[in-house]
Fold this sequence. Notes:
The chain is mainly beta. It has two domains: 10-51, no CATH class; 69-131, no CATH class. It contains two helices and eight strands. The protein has helices at 109-120, 125-131; strands spanning 10-11, 18-19, 28-31, 36-39, 49-51, 69-79, 82-95, 98-107. The strands form three sheets. Strands 4-3-5 form a three-stranded antiparallel sheet, with no helix packed on it. It has a three-stranded antiparallel sheet with strand order 6-7-8, with helices on one face. The protein has a two-stranded antiparallel sheet with strand order 1-2. The longest helix is centred in the last third of the chain and has 12 residues, at 109-120. It is globular, with a radius of gyration of 22 Å.
Amino acid sequence: MPSSESSTSTQCSNCNSFDSSIPANSAWKFCLLKGKYLVENNLNGCDQFKPIVPYQPPPKKRRLKGEGSGYIQLHYCHKKGKSYEQFYYHYEIWENGIRQRKGSKYIPKAKLAAVQELETCKVPVILILRELGIIV
Length: 136
């Protein structure tokens, strides 16, 4: 990312906005078309930009004992010469040291973001399975 102190010339190929000097306090954005960082003042309504969000580590690295275990895995399905991504949630539910249930469930695209967020926050597996429509 360019330093905010220097003045550079940037232009978006979609909206052709242009500014020759970048203020030091400007918020940078990443242009998806050009693959470069541009300044927010240059956007002028361009919808090809997304905000830069600093990485934040997950709040918890592990679930508590007794909350089960699970992970998201990517599988590829090949149909008619094309390859499609399919996400599955693999899980195990334990109680008193004995595995009660083990399985996997397909994650629909509409629920993928919600399940990824729940998995990142390490909520109990039962809540993730409820989101996927499995009653435990």
